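Newbie here. two chains, one complex. Structure please?
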Amino acid sequence: MRSVFSKAILAAAQADSKVLLLTGDHGYALFDEFRKCLPAQFINAGIAEQNMVGVAAGLAKAGFKPIVYGLSAFVPIRVLEQIKMDVCYENLPVVFMGDGAGLVYSSLGSSHQSTEDIAVLRCIPNISILSPCDVYEMQYAMDQALRFESPFYVRMGKSDIGQVHQGPVSVPVGDLVPVRTGTQNNIVFLATGSMVKTAVTLAETIDAAVWSAPGLKPINKNQVNNIALHTKTLVTIEEHSIMGGLGSLVAEIVSETGNTRVVRMGVQDRFSQKCGSYDYLLKEHGIDVAALLPQLSSILATD
Amino acid sequence: MTAFAPHQLRQTVLRMAYSGSTVHIGCAFSIIEIMSVLYRNHLRYPGDNPAATLRDYLVLSKGHGVMAQYACLYEKNWLTTTDIENYFKDGSKLKGLSDAHVVGCEVTSGSLGHGLSVGVGMALAAKLNKSDQYCYAIVGDGEMNEGTMWEAILFAKQQALDNLIVIVDENGFQAMGKTHEVLGLGSLKDKFIAFGFDAIAVDGHDETALDNALIELKNNKNENPKAIIARTVKGKGVSFMENENSWHYTRLTQDTFDLAMAELEPVV
């Protein structure tokens, strides 16, 4: 996924000298090729993220196409007001890349973990939010964002867990992507980013359908409603707080139109307590397969 | 008639403030001469077009002084008499803080510590485009409390932006008191020099001194960003407003409006 990202931005920058890559001193090896090929289009703004986003806004106002890279704990969280006022208020074409979203930096603690980025960005006008689950969705996300028509946030979570899709994704902007069909009529899974694979694993145990949501804003509300019409329970799964992310937005949509129950699986309202591997942190937060299977059973039991 | 004559700009500010029953008069008055000299002698708008691609940029990072800029935009005929007379009326376009949606305003400020970074980005864009555009950024001394200001200053030096001219409106006050009593800044000139800028301190109400400082700094094409520390008086021009921080918050009455307007009549 990360190599798809770095290749996509290199290609975009080679094709258009107005494309600039800004980083707040992050991405040591990720941008080696970019720095070698296009040193004049690479700006290390130093460990000063807020200024970096203001500068990106100024560059965009003057006709440049900035890509702002950071860890998602810093971009967008630390620079939220700059995203709101400097970039989104003027609808400037700045692409924000939030790397390591969710619990990826499991051993570094809450400062580097990010389970609130979708929630805080969703209510800022003009910005689109993408949350790809594999290399194919990453390419799909970059194809949209690198058109530089408005602000984008691309959330890059755990990136080395293999592919979900078999080939390129080419659905309309905001659509969910079918991942698997199933005979189970009572439950359908909607998942985003790293948790799509987990959703598939869970769904296989009961032969349920799974949809991936690479686009969280905008999202095709009609499609969500149509999916909801054909099941009793929608189960959402995300490596993000259950407040404000995919689960919330699905609940907001469905609550206005139907009677479908929405069960939100994700990070509860708590910080990580302990240190450990990525898999350990998923377990600590109760979003690994072993912890979610019993929840699935109880959902089925109450249907 | 002198273009952008300070007393006329102040009268426009008073008319806006009175008709809109607004605050922020003092912090607009402290930057009147700075605005006047920039608009009269320095800002270049090809074709007199406020959106011209190769214009100079004027960034009002201390957005609270925006009425001073509106007065200049009015004299440029980019704002209408209706805009001025309807200030703060329901559905009107001019807000109480600098807003990039207004023709001639480059940044949306008011949340302090934003405009300078955006201005630095525009100065960098001019450098990347190899154009001779300048970016003038008017910042407040109170605004220098913000950490982002110092991030922007470091970055401007690192990028060798000698087309960036930061003008600090050093009126000595911020919202709740004197700057040195709230979060002391010491010598801003020394600080800018320590950060690698060329810096000059001048009387911010002396138009000739401001003009000379701008010319001198722009002639130093040495890759150093520039700063002018403009020592100003909050509320300058109206005796009962000068150095009275309450005029950051006070609204005009008919009496104070008349008194202030009378003080601003040109000396014959």
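Moderator note: Chain A has eleven helices and twelve strands. The mean pLDDT of chain A is 97. Thread marked as resolved.
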